[in-house]
Amino acid sequence: MCWPYQILRLIIFLSILVRHTLLVCVNIQKFYTVVYNLCMGQMEQISKRKSRNVAVQKIVLQTIATAGLLSVAIVAPNVIGAMVKMGFVPKPRFKESIKTSRQNLVKAGLLAYAKGFLSLTPAGETKLRQLERLDYKTKKPKRWDKKWRVLIFDISEQKRDIRDKVRLTLVAIGFVRLQNSVWVYPYDCEDLVTLLKSDFKIGKDLLYLIVDSIENDGWLIERFGLSI
Predict the structure, then answer these.
(1) Residue 121 dihedral angles phi and psi, to the nearest 5°
(2) In terms of Cα–Cα distance, which of 56, 52, 61 is closest to 106?
(3) What is the C-alpha to C-alpha distance for residues 108 and 110, in angstroms, rounded to an integer?
(4) pLDDT of 59-86, one tens digit each?
(5) pLDDT in tens, 176-188
(6) Chain centroid to CA 173
(7) Which of 60, 134, 183, 193 has its CA at a distance of 20 to 30 angstroms from the CA of residue 72?
(8) For the chain, which residues score pLDDT lower than 50?
(9) E-assigned strands of the chain?
(10) What global pTM score does this model have?
């Protein structure tokens, strides 16, 4: 057998080998892509389910807090009515979800159950304030009133955990830090300040100011995207 023929066979063999190798690589890549998409899909579903459960718990706590004392029999109708007002689309399993949420809140010590009635425990009141604080949204008017809202807090090192929670809350809402423990926001947030003082018991440590001007505030106006 002549050498050129052997070389040709070798080239053909290598070509086939490379082709199969590429096909295997492509199939492996497709496999990992499918697995990744499935995992991401499951993560999204878990995240949505968790958010929905938290929303249901919050509405249950708010409903019972508003009533003060509420019969178990009318918890579901009241909660469903509140959920519809918030934009939730009624589903067949709503009542089951509310019942599960109610039972979990009782087990967690956030609701007290006695003689067919439910009421908030002190822990439940604290939890409700926490959920309201995390879900707090300031109303942004169409036109800025050209006033700055300044928050100054002086929380001792012994309450470091509370200080960190206050700071994280302000960051989440959109406050900008001017200096250490001095934060600024362009819109009315008095309700938030009241909530923070009540939730963290820092009435004397938190000062709320409304000021007409801040020196060199051009960067703040740009940061908040304000029009003047």
Answers:
(1) -90, 170
(2) 61
(3) 6
(4) 777 777 777 776 666 666 766 676 666 5
(5) 999 888 999 999 8
(6) 11
(7) 134
(8) 1, 34-36, 38-40, 47
(9) 70-71, 111-114, 117-120, 148-153, 176-179, 182-185, 206-211
(10) 0.51
